[in-house]
Design a protein that fits this description.
Distance between the termini: 63 Å
Number of domains: 3
Radius of gyration: 25 Å
CATH architecture of the largest domain: 3-Layer(aba) Sandwich
CATH superfamily of the largest domain: Thiamin diphosphate (ThDP)-binding fold, Pyr/PP domains
Number of strands: 18
CATH class of the largest domain: Alpha Beta
Largest sheet: 6 strands, parallel
Shape: globular
Helix content: 25-40%
Number of helices: 27
Length: 576
Amino acid sequence: MKGTDYILKALAAEGIEALFCVPGGLIDPFLSAFEHTPLIKPIIAAQEGGACYMADGYSRASGNFGACMAIGGPGLTNMTTAVSTAWTDTSPVLVLSGEVATFMEGLGQFQDASASSFNDTEILRSVTAMSLSIENPRLLNHHFREALLTMFGRRRGPVHLSLPRDVQEADISVAHERLDRSLLAPKMLDASAADRFWARVAPGRDFQKRADKIAILAGGGAERSDAAKALLTLAEAFHVPVATTLKAKGVFPEDHSLSLGVFGYAGTRHSSTAILADDLELLLVLGSGLNERDTMHWNARLASQRGLFQVNVAPEAMSAGYGGGVAVVGDVAAFLERILSEPGELLGHLHAGKDVRREWLDGIRKVPRLYDAENCSSDAVPIHPARIVAELRSVMPRETVALVDSGAHRAFAGQYWESYEPRTYISATNLGPMGWAIPAGVGVKLARPDRPCVVITGDGCMLMHGLEIQTAARFDVPVMYVVINNAALGNVWLRASKLGPKPAELTSLPDHDWATVARGLGVKSLTVREPQELAPAFQQALESQSAFLIDVKADKRFATPVEPFSASVQSWSYHE
């Protein structure tokens, strides 16, 4: 078989169903190869960055990896921000690029980006776990397997393989063998370090008294390790309240009586009250690197009385900002399962504190969970973003997968959209490029065709990657796009408008008619101007079973619900 056939059959063997790409001369051999590999569906994006965002969405929703392809040179460099987004969010994405034949490298052929030219493989090296050009067909099988194993290594993330034209067209004598799943998701744990948990809880070890006021902060690592079931079991067995980071939203059901909701940026009042409590004795941080937004801007009150107890697969992800704690290198699910399997004598210490935690949590729940919740019923025109998100959540089924783009709408969605399962709230939370969610929604829906998929985005995001809605329409991918159209770069305008008329003008946008644009691209659409029109419009889009865009005219003047985060930013000093 040809090199192109090897690649497509290898992807199919790994359970990949779609390859997101933009055609070009350097990958022409793949176009005919698709004809005899029907298990892989080619999805043609509008732009190479969009193709990579689609693969990223596919990866996050499926728990597998996503795959994308473009020509080298301009096609690959168009993907650089998308690859960087996957890198910062540890999302496994296989990036394939076509290159001139090895015997033509450096001769000045059109679009030569090989090592003998401007070397696009080197450009991607800093934002991938591996970036490599396959210079000999005999190495294709070896390097492909190496790329997959590297992609799922301790520092998970995207990898890149450059495929010269002669490698694509060469005869390959071996077939790819599907990798053992245990290699891609090993359940490793530093058992001796995990045992120190009991020294923090049980009396007479590190502390004289038993720790009763215990809470959990679950991060993206809990979702990555499929720890949701074990997390729920432990929380219910011992009445331990659970908060999540924004990235891990949904890893613990947010309507559960033990849920504190999101902590940090766009977090709830319940989570802030519990996690920053002066009398919190022990905080278990499961799979979070404790970045700025996950720590309420590195809030000094985050450190519990007995220090943080952190579990993470990567030692370098352990926070150095909170001393006196314990760091356990390991998989979150493996840690939780070990705790649950301990002898009854040890588990008895957790049982003994249940009543204290129940009374403590009851006190927290006496105050409203959300900030500014009254805005969810606002009758303001233009429409309040909180009302948009609240109405959307009330219409969409429980199992809906929501993708949230970058902008003011991220804060409103983080606060007012509830999620109940892992991988049902998806957002690029670290690099946060605008427009990411629009193409990513295509990948998510293809990975999870059994679930409704809604993208919450803004008009600024539409200007960046809005053309990818035509990809959803062209390939009959039923994604609902809700554009919170406030005629501004929302978060930026909220800051800039305080600086004077010119900054406000420069961060405002024309009120584009996105519904008409959508129809021109083959997408069904509606425009909503009144709050009472929201629910019927969302219901119509849901029932259409097709790509559908709703242009909601919103007011840019409403502040985002991030009061405690903003207060923490104002009070913070690096030197304290």
